[in-house]
């Protein structure tokens, strides 16, 4: 750690002045490291240089794979320490934004000698200001309010009782297990849930839009293109096992790799694997598959005669073939994922 800054003051003006001074010192040190002029109007958020009126851009020294010169790992790191009597003014309405800004410039922030209510207020401040998913971990009754205020609460069972464990979402025996909970099980859960949701939307869009195409050829009557039993069991039986197995067993990499390369956790923080764009892509994929299946079947059964010269393309035959083909196609979508799963497990 390059330097540890301590916030001093017992009232709003003194704490505000202390935070302003510390913020300027940190920004000045980062400007000097990046080779920027002290007069440059820039800000630093998430390791990027923000210039007024422009999009954030990486600094020249941000190339982490550069063989020469300093990298992001060499950038000076700072810590902020604030105690209970200074934290109360820092959480006031006209100071809290400055407090969050200064805290985000530091590698670590330590709030010491604070009350349970102040712990919860800090968590709420981060949730409100950064729009981030928060995690709180504690081992005693004084951590209960903080654990409940966070999106995810983790309790440590120890000598201070089980109040924190009872109020938490996850219980750990030791603090060191938090690394595995986040980097391994947390990442696996996020990956599985994203794949599960995208596949679930895809297969149901493909199922529903076949009925939509059929409505154009049935005069928008109440007639369905599927048998009533198929509609009932489509999600319950015909397409349930692959997606359940995908959501429970899928592992793109093993646990040792997850712990060795923590940056694999970053896509979950940035919401890369399930967002509006990927949802629309799943919708488009489902609509495209339904269009191809329905009109291929419609063309194949348009004029089919049996051996006695009668029309063989009845609705029962059409809907049976369409439904069977739909089940096969949507289940084959997870084939590559299961091949990856078998390869990983072996």
Q: How are the SSEs placed, and which strands pair?
A:
Blueprint (H helix, E strand, L loop, with lengths): L2 E4 L5 H23 L7 E4 L2 E4 L26 E6 H7 L5 H9 L3 E5 L3 H15 L4 E4 L5 H6 L2 E5 L6 H5 L2 E3 L4 H41 L10 H11 L1 H10 L5 H6 L5 H4 L6 H25 L14 H18 L2 H11 L1
Parallel strand pairs: 1-4, 4-5, 6-7, 7-8
Antiparallel strand pairs: 2-3
In round numbers, the mean pLDDT is 82
What is the C-alpha radius of gyration, as a whole number of Å? 29 Å
Characterize the largest beta sheet: strand count, sense, and whether it forms a barrel: 3 strands, parallel
Catalogue the unreliable spans.
Answer: 51-73, 340-346
The strand order across the widest sheet is 1-4-5
Total count of strands: 8
Tell me the fraction of residues in β-strands, as a range. 5-15%
What count of helical segments does DSSP give? 14
Report helical residue fraction.
55-70%
- Given the helix and strand composition, which structural class is it? mainly alpha
**Global shape:** elongated
Distance linking N and C termini: 42 Å
What is the ordering of alpha helices and beta strands?
A: EHEEEHHEHEHEHEHHHHHHHH
């Amino acid at each position: 750690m390059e330097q540890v800054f301590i916030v001093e003051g017992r009232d709003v003006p003194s704490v505000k002045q202390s935070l302003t001074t510390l913020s300027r010192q940190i920004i000045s040190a980062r400007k000097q490291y990046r080779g920027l002029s002290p007069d440059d109007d820039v800000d630093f958020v998430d390791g990027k240089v923000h210039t007024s009126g422009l999009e954030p851009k990486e600094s020249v020294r941000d190339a982490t794979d550069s063989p020469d010169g300093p990298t992001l790992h060499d950038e000076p790191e700072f810590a902020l320490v604030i105690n209970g009597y200074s934290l109360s003014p820092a959480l006031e309405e006209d100071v809290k934004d400055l407090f969050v800004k200064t805290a985000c410039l530091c590698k670590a922030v330590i709030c010491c000698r604070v009350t349970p209510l102040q712990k919860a207020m800090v968590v709420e401040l981060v949730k409100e200001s950064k729009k981030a998913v928060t995690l709180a971990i504690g081992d005693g009754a004084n951590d209960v309010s903080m654990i409940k205020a966070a999106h995810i609460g983790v309790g440590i069972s120890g000598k201070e009782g089980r109040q924190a464990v009872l109020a938490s979402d996850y219980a750990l025996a030791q603090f060191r297990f938090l690394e595995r909970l986040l980097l391994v099980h947390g990442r696996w859960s996020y990956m599985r849930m994203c794949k599960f949701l995208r596949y679930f939307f895809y297969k149901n869009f493909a199922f529903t839009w076949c009925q939509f195409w059929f409505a154009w050829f049935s005069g928008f009557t109440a007639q369905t293109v599927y048998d009533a039993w198929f509609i009932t069991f489509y999600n319950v039986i015909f397409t349930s096992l692959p997606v359940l197995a995908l959501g429970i067993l899928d592992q793109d990499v093993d646990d040792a790799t997850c712990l060795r390369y923590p940056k694999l956790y970053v896509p979950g923080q940035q919401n890369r694997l399930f967002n509006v764009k990927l949802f629309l892509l799943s919708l488009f994929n489902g609509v495209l598959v339904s269009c191809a299946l329905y009109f291929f079947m419609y063309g194949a059964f348009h004029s089919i005669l049996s051996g006695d010269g009668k029309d063989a393309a009845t609705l029962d035959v059409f809907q049976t073939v369409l439904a069977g083909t739909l089940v096969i196609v949507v289940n084959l979508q997870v084939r590559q994922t299961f091949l990856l799963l078998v390869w990983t497990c072996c």
